[in-house]
């Protein structure tokens, strides 16, 4: 019995001792200072002045500088077709011949009549001064000669109209007539397009009107030729603002080297705006907008390892262009700005500044 009591007391002593040690360990751990949290890695860029060449981006379409529908001015039957659809033709090149045999025969008769009238006029011109023929006869002979010449010119004009020529050099479209077909004035034969230069028509908001001027450079791109840029200049600005859209139509003339572009193509137009030699700009992902205004997160007090303290700084922003935002006030050269992960960073938190991979790719380009 004594031995059993002794064992029980001993077991309780061991148990209470273990509880005491565990309690002391917890108290000791609570009294020790917590280990500092690891700095949060964030992507950053170092602010540096750079040349600013902003552009005003718009969408639009291409239009031919010169394009006409070839059509006859007079009626007639097609007796000859002298072009191949899709080929290039020169200014003045014959395209279609209409039947003109009656006009040719009439012209021959008129020329014979005019030759006779001319001889009669010459005879009267010699006789009138001598009084051998009255002056009234001389006047009648002159009138007859003038009328004969006018009839010849009229018939020659009809013959000329029946040979349809290209009004300018260009590429002729699909043929819409066949041999033997009778055409009335205005019936379409084909379209003729000058592809050496095209008009790029696009719209800009009215607030941009003061930044658009004749002669400004325009870069045109299209998904038909990825990576290819076509250069042009602003040649016309619509004087009227659209009633519904409040946009202004701008027209640029674009050189079409190789005649790759076609009228009707959808295009992106990039209008070059006046730039500045050195401005502060950051990636657009760096700027946060709230009711308090625009701000960025900067890394201050950096050590050699790039570890520093995150601070929120209010900024005044300017133009946006191609993924970057100009900062007019609030940043200076050398500031380290967080570009991604700002929402995970509390003001005053320790952060590890890492290079922005997208900014590195941009600098390589």
Automatic annotation (TrEMBL):
Coarse class of the protein's main subcellular location: other
Record's subcellular location: Cell envelope
Pfam families: Beta-barrel_RND_2 (PF25954), BSH_RND (PF25917), RND-MFP_C (PF25967)
GO cellular component, one term: efflux pump complex
InterPro entries: Beta-barrel_RND_2 (IPR058792), MdtA-like_BSH (IPR058625), MdtA-like_C (IPR058627), RND_pump_MFP (IPR006143)
Domain Multidrug resistance protein MdtA-like barrel-sandwich hybrid intervals: 66-193
Domain Multidrug resistance protein MdtA-like C-terminal permuted SH3: 279-341
Keywords of this entry: Transport
All copies of domain CusB-like beta-barrel, residue ranges: 201-272
Cross-referenced PANTHER family: BLR2860 PROTEIN (PTHR30469:SF29), MULTIDRUG RESISTANCE PROTEIN MDTA (PTHR30469)
Family to which the UniProt record says this protein belongs: Belongs to the membrane fusion protein (MFP) (TC 8.A.1) family.
Protein name: Hemolysin secretion protein D
Protein source organism: Burkholderia ubonensis
Upper taxonomic lineage: Bacteria, Pseudomonadati, Pseudomonadota, Betaproteobacteria, Burkholderiales
């Amino acid at each position: 019995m004594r031995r059993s009591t002794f064992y029980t007391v001993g077991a309780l002593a061991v148990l209470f001792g273990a509880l005491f040690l565990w309690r002391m360990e917890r108290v000791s751990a609570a009294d020790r200072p917590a280990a500092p949290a690891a700095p949060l890695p964030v992507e950053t860029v170092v602010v540096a002045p750079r040349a600013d060449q902003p552009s005003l981006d718009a969408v639009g379409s291409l239009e031919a500088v010169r394009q006409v529908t070839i059509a006859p001015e007079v009626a007639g039957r097609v007796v000859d077709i002298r072009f191949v659809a899709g080929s290039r033709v020169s200014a003045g090149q014959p395209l279609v011949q209409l039947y003109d045999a009656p006009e040719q025969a009439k012209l021959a008769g008129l020329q014979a009549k005019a030759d006779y009238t001319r001889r009669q006029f010459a005879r009267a011109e010699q006789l009138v001064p001598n009084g051998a023929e009255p002056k009234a006869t001389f006047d009648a002979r002159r009138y007859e000669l003038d009328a004969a010449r006018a009839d010849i010119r009229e018939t020659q004009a009809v013959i000329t109209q029946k040979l349809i020529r290209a009004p300018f050099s260009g590429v002729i479209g699909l043929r819409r007539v066949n041999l033997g077909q009778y055409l009335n004035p205005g019936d379409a034969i084909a379209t003729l397009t000058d592809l050496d230069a095209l008009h790029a028509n696009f719209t800009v908001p009215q607030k941009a009107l003061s930044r658009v001027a004749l002669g400004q450079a325009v870069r045109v791109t299209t998904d038909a030729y990825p990576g290819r840029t076509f250069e042009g200049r602003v040649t016309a600005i619509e004087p009227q603002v659209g009633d519904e859209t409040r946009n202004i139509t701008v027209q640029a003339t674009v050189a079409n080297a190789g005649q790759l572009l076609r009228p009707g193509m959808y295009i992106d137009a990039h209008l070059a705006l006046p730039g500045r030699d050195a401005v502060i700009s950051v990636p657009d992902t760096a700027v946060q907008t709230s009711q308090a205004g625009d701000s960025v997160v900067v890394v201050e007090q950096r050590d050699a390892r790039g570890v520093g303290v995150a601070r929120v700084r209010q900024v005044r922003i300017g133009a946006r262009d191609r993924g970057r935002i100009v900062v007019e006030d609030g940043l200076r050269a050398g500031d380290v700005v967080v570009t991604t992960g700002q929402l995970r960073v509390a003001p005053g938190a320790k952060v590890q500044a890492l290079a922005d991979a997208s900014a590195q790719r941009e600098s390589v380009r």
